[in-house]
Specification:
two-stranded antiparallel sheet, 19 strands, Aminopeptidase
C-alpha cells in the first residue's frame, strides 16, 4: 500500500443504528485552522495554536504504520488533488447511553471527499451503511488480531474488524482510489461542531415529528444546531420514504447548506467563530496522522474555500435494494459506480441528471443531435452527465421531503 501511494503521489484521485453527518468536521476543521494560523503571532494566540496542534496530534490514528507524508505542505493552497474519508460511529464509549444501547462498533457513516488537482471541483460520495461489499484482510493495530477477507458483507462491519485503518482499506478496495487522509467522529462531535458554526438553515416540505429521533420541526426553513441538527441527521422515519437511504439525502441537504453558510457569512474571516470551531474540532474528532498537521489542514482549507458551489457535487454511491439475495441491504449498481469512479480517478468533473437543462446555460449538457447555429457564440461544454446518480450540488437549495405517514 505504501508503494502504491508513492506511485500515486501528486496524482488527483478522484433498525436501531443512528447515522449522522461528520463531513461537517472536515470542512469546518480545515477552515477553523486558518484562524489559529492567522492570529498566532501573539503569545496567547501562539499558546492556543500549540494546544490545538497538541490535542489533534495526540488524538490522531495511524492508518498503516507509515502514513505521515514525506513532505508536509507549507502554508499555501494544497498543490494537488486529495481524497479524505470521514467515518462516523454511533457507539463511542465516551458517549454513555445517551443514544441508546449499542452492541458493537459500526461505521454507519462513510463519506468520501475528493478535491480535484486544480481545485475547481469536488465530489462528496456518501456510502450507504448497508452497502454489500468485499472486505479485505485487516489487522487490529491495538490487539494484533487478524480478520480474514469476506466476499459480501455490509460496509459498516469494517470498523469492528480493525478500526479506522480497516474502514479506509475497505473503501479503497471498493472504489479503486488511494485514500491517504481520514477522520473519525461521533455523535458528540456533530453536536459541538454544529453549535460552533452557529447553526445551519435547512428547509422542509412539511412539518416533521419523529419521536424516535426526538425531532420536531415545522415546514419551511429552520436554523438547526446542536441536538436538533443531530436529530435531523439521525431521523429516518421523518424524511423521504422512511429508509436509511433517505437519511443520506438529509445529510446532503445539510452539507450543501453548510457550505453555502460558510462561504456566505464570512466564517473564514470571523476569528472568534473560527477559534470556536478549532476548539470544538480538536476535542471531538480523531484524524489520521497524515492529516493531523496544521499545515496540511490549512493547505486543504485554502483549496476548498473558493470552489464554486455548482462544482461541489454530493452524490450517493449507486445501489439497489431489490436484490432478493440481500433483503434489506443495498447492492452496488456496478456499471454506474464504475462510470462515476472512472471520472473521479481521472480527475474529471461530472454532472448529475438535470430535469430541465437550460440551453442558454454554458454548463448545460450539449445535445449532439441539435442543429448547429454558425452565428451563435461558441461556449464550452459543461461536465459530462452521468445519468442515474442520486445527489445534488452545493448550490441546490431544495427542501428535504418529509415522510408521508
Amino acid at each position: 500500500m505504501a508503494q502504491r501511494r508513492r506511485q500515486l503521489a501528486g496524482i488527483a484521485r478522484h433498525g436501531r443504528l443512528k447515522p449522522y453527518s461528520p463531513v461537517t468536521t472536515v470542512i469546518t476543521v480545515v477552515a477553523a485552522t486558518l484562524a489559529v494560523i492567522l492570529v498566532s503571532t501573539g503569545a496567547v494566540a501562539g499558546l492556543a495554536f500549540w494546544q490545538f496542534r497538541s490535542t489533534v496530534e495526540a488524538n490522531s490514528i495511524d492508518l498503516n504504520g507509515s502514513d505521515v507524508p514525506d513532505v508536509i505542505p507549507t502554508i499555501g493552497s494544497f498543490e494537488s488533488g486529495f481524497n479524505i474519508l470521514i467515518v462516523g460511529v454511533d457507539n463511542d464509549p465516551d458517549q454513555g447511553e445517551a443514544y441508546g444501547e449499542r452492541g458493537g462498533t459500526l461505521n454507519d457513516v462513510n463519506i468520501l471527499v475528493h478535491v480535484s488537482a486544480d481545485h475547481t471541483n469536488a465530489v462528496v460520495v456518501s456510502i450507504p451503511r448497508d452497502l454489500i461489499v468485499a472486505h479485505p484482510t485487516c489487522v487490529d493495530v491495538e490487539s494484533g488480531q487478524e480478520f480474514a477477507s469476506m466476499s459480501a458483507r455490509p460496509v459498516n462491519e469494517a470498523m469492528s474488524r480493525g478500526g479506522l485503518p480497516c474502514v479506509v482499506s475497505t473503501v479503497e478496495s471498493l472504489t479503486g482510489l488511494d485514500i491517504p487522509f481520514a477522520g473519525l467522529a461521533t455523535f458528540d462531535g456533530v453536536v459541538r461542531m454544529s453549535d460552533a458554526v452557529g447553526g445551519v438553515p435547512i428547509c422542509l416540505t412539511d412539518a416533521i415529528d419523529d419521536p424516535l429521533a426526538e425531532l420536531n420541526l415545522p415546514a419551511g426553513t429552520s436554523v438547526v444546531s446542536g441536538q436538533t441538527a443531530l436529530a435531523f441527521l439521525r431521523s429516518r422515519h421523518g424524511v423521504g420514504d422512511g429508509s436509511d437511504l433517505s437519511r443520506i439525502s438529509s445529510q446532503q441537504i445539510y452539507l450543501a447548506s453548510l457550505m453555502r453558510t460558510v462561504q456566505g457569512d464570512g466564517t473564514f474571516s470571523d476569528l472568534p467563530k473560527l477559534f470556536s470551531l478549532a476548539s470544538a474540532a480538536a476535542s471531538n474528532i480523531k484524524l489520521s496522522t497524515s492529516l493531523a498537521h496544521p499545515d496540511t489542514m490549512v493547505s486543504m482549507a485554502l483549496a476548498l474555500k473558493d470552489i464554486d458551489l455548482s462544482r461541489l457535487v454530493f452524490v450517493q454511491y449507486p445501489g439497489t435494494t431489490d436484490n432478493p439475495n440481500f433483503p434489506g441491504k443495498v447492492v452496488p449498481s456496478q456499471d454506474l459506480a464504475d462510470a462515476m469512479f472512472a471520472k473521479i480517478l481521472a480527475d474529471e468533473p461530472f454532472a448529475l441528471t438535470a430535469d430541465e437543462p437550460d440551453p442558454a446555460d454554458p454548463a448545460a449538457p450539449v445535445d449532439p443531435e441539435a442543429p448547429v447555429d454558425a452565428e451563435a457564440p461558441v461556449v464550452e461544454a459543461g461536465p459530462e452527465v452521468i445519468d442515474g446518480l442520486t445527489g445534488r450540488t452545493a448550490e441546490d437549495e431544495s427542501c428535504a421531503q418529509a415522510f408521508a405517514f
